[in-house]
Amino acid sequence: MGLVIPLEDSKRRASASLEPLLDLVAADMQRVNELILSKAGSNVSMIPEVANHLISSGGKRLRPMLTLAAARMFNYRGEGHIKLAASVEFLHTATLLHDDVVDESEMRRGKLAARMLWGNQASVLVGDYLLGQAFRMMVEVGSIEALDVLSTAAAVIAEGEVMQLSVAKNMSTTEDEYLAVIRAKTAALFSAASEVGPIIAGGDRAMRAAFRSYGTNLGLAFQLIDDALDYGGSQADLGKKVGDDFREGKITLPVVLAYRRGSDQERDFWRRVLEKAEIGDGDLEKAIGLIRSHRAIEDTVERARHYGSVARDALAPFPDSPHRNALIEVVDFCIERAH
Amino acid sequence: MGLVIPLEDSKRRASASLEPLLDLVAADMQRVNELILSKAGSNVSMIPEVANHLISSGGKRLRPMLTLAAARMFNYRGEGHIKLAASVEFLHTATLLHDDVVDESEMRRGKLAARMLWGNQASVLVGDYLLGQAFRMMVEVGSIEALDVLSTAAAVIAEGEVMQLSVAKNMSTTEDEYLAVIRAKTAALFSAASEVGPIIAGGDRAMRAAFRSYGTNLGLAFQLIDDALDYGGSQADLGKKVGDDFREGKITLPVVLAYRRGSDQERDFWRRVLEKAEIGDGDLEKAIGLIRSHRAIEDTVERARHYGSVARDALAPFPDSPHRNALIEVVDFCIERAH
Predict the structure, then answer these.
(1) How does DSSP classify residue A272?
(2) What is its EC number (chains A, B) (predicted)?
(3) Interchain contact, B317 vs A259, CB within 8 Å
């Protein structure tokens, strides 16, 4: 194994940022945001209330930006990318609403989860409404290929959530099993959001494959860094507090690695807190200590770097352009969140 | 991206070796070899001739050793592991015979390929015979679960070979598409060979999952290092010469990376030599030069390291034992081949 010196990286270039991407898609994103607000509307007043609670809670809207930038990179001149981008954000929002019900989460992006304010039933049904609206917008765009990619992603995401149920209380989950979950749960939507760009722009098979690969691997890197941050990131990130995953009994890669590398006694601890959910004072600190002692955060970040490298190489063949470079910088941005 | 200093590794410990594994399974392997020779026999004299040409050509028999070590690690006391190990080697041998026909290869392990001596038809049919014998031995063992895992692997391998046909002449193949090929073509058998160990030893779900993950990731690392060696390894390795993949127009990760990172002019070169198979004097040297200039070998090895790390963590939970440690050392051995 090589010795990794992450500092070398910051010497090589200034820290990566989302700004170039934000700037490039700003005008389009303004329209996406308007569409999102309008399509979350309904005469049933609870629907916009619940939807807007989450929609206006300050997510980065990274996924729809991928769609916009990918379409524009191939000089797409139509209107379809706005609707597809809004659909992508709706698919994501619907997933979050349903997730919080399934996970019994109390907080989301630093605010009370919708289910704490309007209840589980409303969260489930408004999620379904957003899914329906997402499909209506996709259909309006009229690209069967884009519909195919996004509807497949919607099914795969649901499959991933179900997979996660079986992983949730099982400490013997392997890294591969965990990866299969996040590949479905997170990476599938990043992948579809990216691939529909070249699709509506009339891109060829190679362009589609490159963006599918970019999105998948960016999504994996993004989720792994998220997992790492939950056991040691700054509180500011995404409104999550350190230890949210721990308190919810989620089994993520830092835990998988620490468990597998731990002693029998340590494994007893992990089974007690995560399988049996018997969490007491000081257990989060103990968990973080074990994760640190087994270098599980560093190695989770290292795994994320691997996927980030694959995502970068996916876009390598395209000519130097502001959109391509901004999309590549997103990879660096996602990984540098961990520093 | 971190800076990787592989030298740190060799300082940390002496170079890894297959010896501990070879020593542990020596007695069992002796019986596997006898079984292989006996089951490759037939009254149709061409069958043992063709089969033994390849069987006696000095492969490392790594895959059956994984089966033996995995079964013994869980204190398996029966006889089934011998037959399963021989089946695994037969599946592998059958694949090689068929591969050489499909790829029109002239050499295999430093000798003329069987098809050069007995023809394509004999190579295909003797491959089929070995597949049949492999299944007969599996059935004799009587474990439906082991049969399920190995027969699934056999189907997946064939699927991978077909996938490779479509990848073969397509320079726009992404890294993910290439990985899907080697996951099927190589990693599936490593995975099955490893998983049937705990299966016949009565291991639980977690043990099976760990060995499946170990085998898969070891297989991926093994194949990626093989790919890297083909563009810069020593001639001695596996009887392959540098550039075999190049001459056969095989698209492997070093080429995928060099192509994606290259200029338009460089991509014209790759398409000419690999898609159109117009290879002239100096083209191999030029290919190696391009691969070096884009650090494609280093990064292929880096990708292999990633999978190697996952394989190691798959076996991390098991108590310290000679078998576990030897299996982990196999990972290091496979990766260090690239140094």
Answers:
(1) I
(2) 2.5.1.90
(3) yes
pLDDT value for A14: 67
pLDDT (average), residues A271-285: 95
User: Over 70: is that where the pLDDT of A327 sits?
Assistant: yes
- Report the Cα–Cα distance between both ends of chain A, in Å, rounded: 21
Tokens for A105, please give them.
């989460």
E strand or H helix that includes residue A146 = helix A144-168
In the predicted model, is pLDDT for residue A215 greater than 60? yes
- How many Å is the maximal CA-CA distance in chain A? 61
Those residues with Cβ within 8 angstroms of residue B44's Cβ, 6 or more apart along the chain or in another chain = none
With beta carbons under 8 A apart, name residues in chain B contacting A296: none
Orientation angle between helical segments B253-261 and B296-315, nearest 10 degrees: 130
β-strand partners of B108: B111
**Considering CB atoms only, which of A209, A256, A257 is closest to B177?**
A209
Structure tokens, B288: 């190696």
What is the spatial distance between Cα A313 and Cα A316, in angstroms, rounded to a whole number? 5
CB A192 within 8 A of CB A183: no
Long-range Cβ pairs for the range A272-281 (8 Å, 24+) = A273/A246, A273/A249, A274/A169, A274/A171, A274/A246, A274/A249, A275/A169, A275/A170, A275/A171, A275/A249, A277/A249, A279/A246, A279/A247
Query: What is the band of B23 on the pLDDT scale with cuts at 50, 70, 90?
Result: very high
Mean pLDDT (chain B, rounded): 91
Q: Which residues contact B298 (CB under 8 A, 6 or more apart)?
A: B4
**Six-digit token pair at A89?**
């954000």
- Which of A154, A179, A150 shows the shortest CA–CA distance to A164? A179
Domains of chain A: 17-336 (1.10.600.10)
C-alpha to C-alpha distance for A338 and A88, rounded to whole angstroms: 26
Cα–Cα distance, B265 to B267 (Å, whole number): 5
Q: How far apart are CA A108 and CA A59, in angstroms?
A: 10
A257 vs B2, B5, B313: nearest CB:
B313
> Own/partner pairs for A17-24, CB < 8 Å, 24+ apart?
A17/A329, A17/A333, A18/A60, A18/A62, A18/A329, A18/A330, A18/A333, A20/A322, A20/A325, A20/A326, A20/A329, A21/A65, A21/A69, A21/A326, A21/A327, A21/A329, A21/A330, A22/A65, A24/A69, A24/A72, A24/A322, A24/A323, A24/A326
Please list, in sequence order, all residues whose beta carbon lies within 8 angstroms of the beta carbon of residue B130, skipping any fewer than 6 positions away: B40, B51, B90, B91, B93, B94, B97
Structure-block tokens of residue A241: 């507090």
For residues B201 and B84, what is the distance between their CA atoms, to the nearest angstrom? 12
Which SS3 state, helix, strand or coil, does residue A50 take?
helix
Let me know: does A297 contact A232? Beta carbons within 8 Å: yes
Residues of A in contact with B6 (CB under 8 A): 2
B5: phi then psi, degrees, rounded to nearest 5: -115, 90
Chain centroid to Cα B56, Å, comes to 18
Residue the block writes with tokens 């649901």 = A158
Q: How far is CA A128 from CA A51, A243, B86, B106, B200, in A?
A: 11, 29, 53, 59, 46
CA-to-CA dists, residue A37 to A87, A115, B46, angstroms: 12, 20, 74
Q: Which residues of A touch B313 (CB under 8 A)?
A: 175, 256-257, 260-261
Asked if A305's CB is within 8 angstroms of B2's CB, the reply is yes
Q: Could you give the percent of chain A with pLDDT greater than 70? A: 94
List for chain A the helix, strand, coil content (%; round to 5).
75, 0, 25
Q: What is the DSSP string of A214-247?
A: HHHHHHHHHHHHHHHHTTTS-TTGGGPPTTHHHH
